[in-house]
Amino acid sequence: MEVRASRLIAAVPERVLLALTDLTQLARWCGAEAEVTASHYRLRGESFPTGVLGGRLLERSERGLRFEWPLGTRVSTVEITLEPVPQVDNPPADFTRVAVHHRGIPADVLPARWPEESWQCMWALWLRLLQGWLERAEALPRFSFRPPFGAVVERAVEIDAPPDRVWSALVDPAVRERWLTVPLGKELRREEGRLLVCAFELEQPATTVTWRLEALPGGRTRVTPPERVWPHVSTQEGLRRWFAGNIRIRPEVGSPVALGAHGGRLRGRVLEVFPRQLLRLSWTEEGAGWPEPEPLIITIELVPEGRGTRVYITHSGFENLPVAIRQKEFDSYRRGWADGDSLPALKEVAASA
Fold first, then answer.
1. φ, ψ of residue 183 in degrees (nearest 5)
2. Whether residue 176 sits in one domain with residue 235
3. Residue 179 is part of which domain span?
4. Boundary residue ending a domain (124, 145, 166)
5. How far apart are CA 158 and CA 220, in angstroms?
6. What is the pLDDT of residues 7-66, one digit of tens each?
7. What is the rounded average pLDDT of the residues 197-216?
8. Is the Cβ–Cβ distance between 128 and 138 less than 8 Å?
9. Nearest CA to 311 among 268, 345, 263, 260?
10. Among 178, 118, 129, which Cα is nearest to 153's?
């Protein structure tokens, strides 16, 4: 598989090449810890879906770079070419067309639902960061790629406006059209003043876009999800530290969940994942006389509050249990969450992370 991406940038090729190879500039505009030598071109940071971009340097000249990028068991090749584009009617602001050609990408190296589109997205966003740095001398808010690769791309920004104005700009179609410039699909979820989830169907396959608002001091607003708590409620390693030491789970819809507790065995499936926001699981106790397949649902939701995060645990579906045991099970789970040490343990591990 191979992908191409390009962008016209208002800077001469010498400036573009310096931004691509100078360690200080690379750290500023793409957040990379860089290794640039006569034999290697390697960048590390969240702007790259594997955490690392590059490898052995094959060629470096005034016209660009060519280097290897090991992916899985294969080695892909990246060529970045710099083509000067004189602007006759606007001297001396010469431009450069920066083109990326990434060859030999293994189709299965990362669990993307749409691999080619995902790689295309990565390079397009990377070039946009480069353009922002060269044209405005400022580092744009970076995008973070989160697993599963190709499923989630995140960006957090702070806006010099109170949350009600930002919310209005999100939900008023006339205002939104002025800054978004592309149509949105059906509204999927809304929590007034703080959360909006919409379908995004400009190109196929369709995806979703989520905005979450957080009020900041001084009448500012941050559009970002909770960062520190999510790994502790969405990964097997995190859940084992406070919820159940033997839980087995992958945070992907449809994946099985299993754990043992109090001499019994519990199992379920992952029903829904909204990264940095919500994890929903089905739930049953084997051998307890519950109906099949999994009558209960447990929802873990994270909501920004001040400088922290409020965690909501909701256990629902008790009406699906047989009448004879319904109240007993409800009381047991209510006491477990209210009086147990699970939530205090989550608070402790998240605060010390």
1. -75, 145
2. no
3. 157-223
4. 145
5. 7
6. 999 899 999 999 999 999 998 888 888 999 999 999 987 777 777 899 999 999 999 999
7. 71
8. no
9. 345
10. 118
Same domain flag for 79 and 172: no
Residue 114 sits in the same domain as residue 37: yes
How far are the Cα atoms of 102, 106, 149, 255 from residue 57, in angstroms, in the given order?
Answer: 14, 20, 25, 40
Alpha helices in 22-89 (DSSP H): 23-30
Q: Span 265-279, mean pLDDT?
A: 83
* Number of domains into which the chain is organized: 3
Assess whether 236 and 219 both reside in one domain. Answer: no
349, 241 Cβ separation under 8 angstroms: yes
Mutual orientation of helices 323-339 and 342-351 as an angle, nearest 10°?
Answer: 40
Positive or negative torsion for Cα 167, 170, 171, 177: positive
The answer on pLDDT for 295 being more than 70 is yes
Residues contacting 245, CB < 8 A, separation 6+? none
Task: Tell me how far apart the 2 most distant CA atoms of the chain are, in Å.
Answer: 84
Asked if pLDDT for residue 150 goes beyond 50, the answer is no
**In 3D, which of 225, 199, 248 has the Cα closest to residue 144?**
225
The domain that holds 216 is classified in CATH as 3.30.530.20
218 and 235 in a single domain? The answer is: no
Nearest to 59, CA basis, from 31, 46, 34, 78? 78
| Judgement on whether residues 187 and 216 belong to the same structural domain of the protein | yes
Please say whether the beta carbons of 134 and 145 come within 8 A: no
- pLDDT of 153-189, one tens digit each? 666 777 888 889 899 988 888 888 788 766 777 888 8
Q: Taking the CA of residue 113 as centre, how many other CA atoms within 13 Å lie in the half-sphere pointing to its CB?
A: 11
With tokens 């926001």, the residue in question is 277
Nearest alpha-carbon partner for 52 in 36, 33, 66: 33
Q: Is residue 152 part of a domain?
A: no
Residue in the structure block whose two tokens are 């873990």: 300
